[in-house]
Amino acid sequence: MVSRVIPVDLFDLVIFGGTGDLARRKILPGLFRRFCAGQMPDQARVIGAARSEMDSDGYREMVREAIGEFGGGHTFEPAQLEAFLGQLEYVAIDALGEQGWKELQALMAGTERVEAYYFSVAPSLFGEIAERLQKWGMADDQARIVVEKPFGRDLETARALNKTLATYFNEDQIYRIDHYLGKETVQNLMAVRFGNMLFEPLWNSQYVDHIQITVAETVGVGGRGEYYDKSGAMRDMVQNHLMQLLCLIAMEPPARFSPDAVRDEKLKVIRALEPVLPYHVVRGQYQAEPCNEAKNPGFRTAVGNPRSRTESFIALRTEISNWRWAGTPFYLRTGKRMQARSSEITVVFKDTPHSIFAEDAGRHRNVLSIRLQPNEGITLGVTIKEPGPGGMRLIDVPLDMSYAEAINPDDVEHVDAYERLIMDVIRGNQTLFMRGDEVEAAWAWTDPIIKGWEARNDVPKPYDHGSTGPTDSTELLRREGREWRQVTQ
Ligand code: NAP
């Protein structure tokens, strides 16, 4: 494999919540993969920080197990794991008290290196940790903080959180993570859009009929029932992940691929989003799997709230009020317990203005699909003549731009979204992180939709386990003469 690893500066990464689910499943296995790829300098340190009492050796054992469980089949030499574990430390610390802060300060003192603090804890602790980092002299100009979603639950709380963090850190020190932006295909989308002459002239309401963004999951709320019942698909998925994908698809070409140039353009898209009309939104709640209720209960049972009005599915239609997109519908859809796990952005182009072929020759629209998972890749459907005798019959064939076809898979180094984004933090590159004003603008658009449901006591429509959501969601497009793309694995 050709190594394209770009070394990063020497760093210390403190993971608050270093014993938690996210740290064990994503952050630590991801760091280990970067270590194996040769990207983690020998003297770099990863410091786990949480309340649980243990020493660094105990933490290393916990991380060893986490890598075994969540390493995702990554093969490595035993010596590599030992060397990585040797770069780990642990501090028992209380974000809400004074315990452990002196020890952490001593560990971080006097080192000339990048200092990153990953807040992999409940959002209610973000402000507390930021304040204590400053109190203990760690919030200096070199420090970077990484904050996880959810970033607020509405505009007011997001503003308050931005304000709190801004008390201790400058905007260029704050990395608000949305792991969708770290996905390979999302970056490839930008390469395809802005690296080719082919697409940009067609990328507007004159040639594009509509755009669909689907993020479908087969899992239910799992162990996150209590959190999810207070959140719902709108807050958990649309306000952040789907909105970010929408921005990348719809934004104007930035002057350069630099953090503020990209984020300025994304912000303009969010600010140009039309308010969503009530009949342009469909909310759903999944039902239990028939004959398997104990294993796959319905949403209300799963969240432990028989009266829950929280949505596990949402489909909506919006438009962007600017010269490029005026009149082009954007359909967004996300849900749990759906037919297949699939994340895809689809750009459906308009019909040719006039067909020179006989009516029965068939007619197909060009469709560009950008698939985030599974089978990441980009496909463009083009119309060609069906080969063989029998006159002119038109068929639709995919021009596949996925890596599996174009590039020898052995030459491609798989990099998970989290590993890429953590390395970007160390490099000091904020391009793939949300800026504070973007997050607030996204909430400003989302809030009235949620408030409207609350005012109307809106009850989500039930939908079958393993389906494509409530039938009203199909209607949302059908009444405009369109169809959702099939959700396929
Ligand atoms: P989690 O499993 O509940 O872990 C929470 C961590 O915080 C634990 O390490 C816990 O350790 C520590 N902690 C709790 N109270 C503390 C305190 N007072 N002082 C210091 N440490 C404290 O949560 P998680 O699933 O990892 O999620 C962490 C964050 O990531 C949350 O904001 C979540 O919304 C976000 N997130 C998670 C996922 C995911 O897949 N898990 C995905 C996206 C975003 P002790 O109990 O030992 O203190």
Automatic annotation (TrEMBL):
<dbReference type="InterPro" id="IPR022675">
    <property type="entry name" value="G6P_DH_C"/>
</dbReference>
<feature type="domain" description="Glucose-6-phosphate dehydrogenase NAD-binding">
    <location>
        <begin position="14"/>
        <end position="188"/>
    </location>
</feature>
<comment type="function">
    <text>Catalyzes the oxidation of glucose 6-phosphate to 6-phosphogluconolactone.</text>
</comment>
<comment type="similarity">
    <text>Belongs to the glucose-6-phosphate dehydrogenase family.</text>
</comment>
<dbReference type="InterPro" id="IPR019796">
    <property type="entry name" value="G6P_DH_AS"/>
</dbReference>
<dbReference type="GO" id="GO:0005829">
    <property type="term" value="C:cytosol"/>
</dbReference>
<feature type="domain" description="Glucose-6-phosphate dehydrogenase C-terminal">
    <location>
        <begin position="190"/>
        <end position="485"/>
    </location>
</feature>
<feature type="region of interest" description="Disordered">
    <location>
        <begin position="456"/>
        <end position="489"/>
    </location>
</feature>
<keyword id="KW-0313">Glucose metabolism</keyword>
<feature type="binding site">
    <location>
        <position position="336"/>
    </location>
    <ligand>
        <name>substrate</name>
    </ligand>
</feature>
<feature type="active site" description="Proton acceptor">
    <location>
        <position position="241"/>
    </location>
</feature>
<feature type="binding site">
    <location>
        <position position="236"/>
    </location>
    <ligand>
        <name>substrate</name>
    </ligand>
</feature>
<feature type="binding site">
    <location>
        <position position="149"/>
    </location>
    <ligand>
        <name>NADP(+)</name>
    </ligand>
</feature>
<dbReference type="Pfam" id="PF00479">
    <property type="entry name" value="G6PD_N"/>
</dbReference>
<feature type="binding site">
    <location>
        <begin position="17"/>
        <end position="24"/>
    </location>
    <ligand>
        <name>NADP(+)</name>
    </ligand>
</feature>
<feature type="binding site">
    <location>
        <position position="217"/>
    </location>
    <ligand>
        <name>substrate</name>
    </ligand>
</feature>
<dbReference type="InterPro" id="IPR022674">
    <property type="entry name" value="G6P_DH_NAD-bd"/>
</dbReference>
<dbReference type="GO" id="GO:0004345">
    <property type="term" value="F:glucose-6-phosphate dehydrogenase activity"/>
</dbReference>
<protein>
    <recommendedName>
        <fullName>Glucose-6-phosphate 1-dehydrogenase</fullName>
        <ecNumber>1.1.1.49</ecNumber>
    </recommendedName>
</protein>
<dbReference type="Pfam" id="PF02781">
    <property type="entry name" value="G6PD_C"/>
</dbReference>
<dbReference type="GO" id="GO:0050661">
    <property type="term" value="F:NADP binding"/>
</dbReference>
<feature type="binding site">
    <location>
        <position position="183"/>
    </location>
    <ligand>
        <name>substrate</name>
    </ligand>
</feature>
<comment type="pathway">
    <text>Carbohydrate degradation; pentose phosphate pathway; D-ribulose 5-phosphate from D-glucose 6-phosphate (oxidative stage): step 1/3.</text>
</comment>
<keyword id="KW-0119">Carbohydrate metabolism</keyword>
<dbReference type="InterPro" id="IPR036291">
    <property type="entry name" value="NAD(P)-bd_dom_sf"/>
</dbReference>
<keyword id="KW-0560">Oxidoreductase</keyword>
<dbReference type="GO" id="GO:0006006">
    <property type="term" value="P:glucose metabolic process"/>
</dbReference>
<keyword id="KW-0521">NADP</keyword>
<feature type="binding site">
    <location>
        <position position="51"/>
    </location>
    <ligand>
        <name>NADP(+)</name>
    </ligand>
</feature>
<feature type="compositionally biased region" description="Basic and acidic residues">
    <location>
        <begin position="475"/>
        <end position="489"/>
    </location>
</feature>
<feature type="binding site">
    <location>
        <position position="179"/>
    </location>
    <ligand>
        <name>substrate</name>
    </ligand>
</feature>
<dbReference type="GO" id="GO:0009051">
    <property type="term" value="P:pentose-phosphate shunt, oxidative branch"/>
</dbReference>
<dbReference type="InterPro" id="IPR001282">
    <property type="entry name" value="G6P_DH"/>
</dbReference>
